[in-house]
């Protein structure tokens, strides 16, 4: 068994390396092995392009022009804008706004005695009470809208965490429901006296 395998391999190698005489297209007789025949270049292939030297400033301009013609990857114009385009980033933005406001006011409240600021509850209530009714409602609406949006959209995210409502139709419906409930909740909280 081993002898037949060795014999077959030896025959294959000798056949592969055997010199074969071929007639070149120019009429010259030459010898070549079958593997070297694959390396003969056809005379009709076009010459390599000529490379030219470019100054550094010119190459910069060329690169800038090429980059301006490239699309953003993935190109944003191929997507159809849906409600989820707005609700997903707004959920993150409202979370940052709410927590940032809390941290800033908390820090200001803690350092107010050092600087002599009056940020105690009585002063803030008196300042807010002196505003006209329209300004009070507008201020409460501006404060309540991010809160209600973040809470209602957070419930939507909790529903998604259970693995439900992942169809496109359900996501669009949920997005519009979140916006409607957020505005309604903000109006309700703003008009409470």
From TrEMBL:
The keyword Cell membrane is annotated on this UniProt entry: no
Coarse class of the protein's main subcellular location: membrane
SUPFAM superfamilies according to UniProt: Fumarate reductase respiratory complex transmembrane subunits (SSF81343)
One cellular-component annotation, GO: mitochondrion
Species of origin: Oidiodendron maius (strain Zn)
Topology with respect to the bilayer: Multi-pass membrane protein
Official protein name in the record: Succinate dehydrogenase cytochrome b560 subunit
Origin superkingdom: Eukaryota
GO molecular function, one term: metal ion binding
Keywords annotated in UniProt: Heme, Iron, Membrane, Metal-binding, Transmembrane, Transmembrane helix
Places the protein is found: Membrane
Family matches, as InterPro entries: SQR/QFR_C/D, Succ_DH_cyt_bsu_CS, Succ_DH_cytb556, SuccDH_FuR_B_TM-su
Transmembrane residue ranges: 96-117, 137-159, 171-190
GO process annotations (BP): mitochondrial electron transport, succinate to ubiquinone; tricarboxylic acid cycle
CDD domains: SQR_TypeC_SdhC
């Amino acid at each position: 068994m081993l002898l037949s395998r060795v014999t077959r391999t030896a025959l294959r190698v000798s056949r592969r390396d055997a010199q074969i005489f071929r007639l070149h297209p120019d009429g010259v007789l030459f010898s070549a092995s079958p593997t070297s025949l694959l390396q003969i270049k056809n005379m009709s292939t076009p010459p390599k392009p000529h490379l030219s030297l470019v100054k550094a400033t010119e190459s910069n301009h060329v690169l800038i022009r090429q980059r301006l013609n490239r699309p953003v990857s993935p190109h944003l114009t191929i997507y159809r804008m849906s409600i989820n385009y707005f609700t997903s980033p707004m959920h993150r933005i409202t979370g940052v706004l709410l927590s940032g406001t809390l941290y800033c006011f908390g820090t200001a409240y803690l350092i107010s005695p050092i600087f002599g600021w009056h940020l105690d509850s009585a002063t803030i209530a008196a300042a807010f009470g002196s505003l006209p009714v329209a300004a009070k409602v507008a201020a409460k609406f501006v404060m309540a809208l991010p809160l209600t949006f973040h809470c209602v959209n957070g419930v939507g995210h909790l529903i998604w965490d259970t693995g439900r409502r992942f169809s496109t139709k359900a996501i669009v419906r949920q997005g519009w429901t979140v916006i409607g409930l957020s505005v309604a909740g903000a109006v309700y909280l703003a008009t409470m006296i």
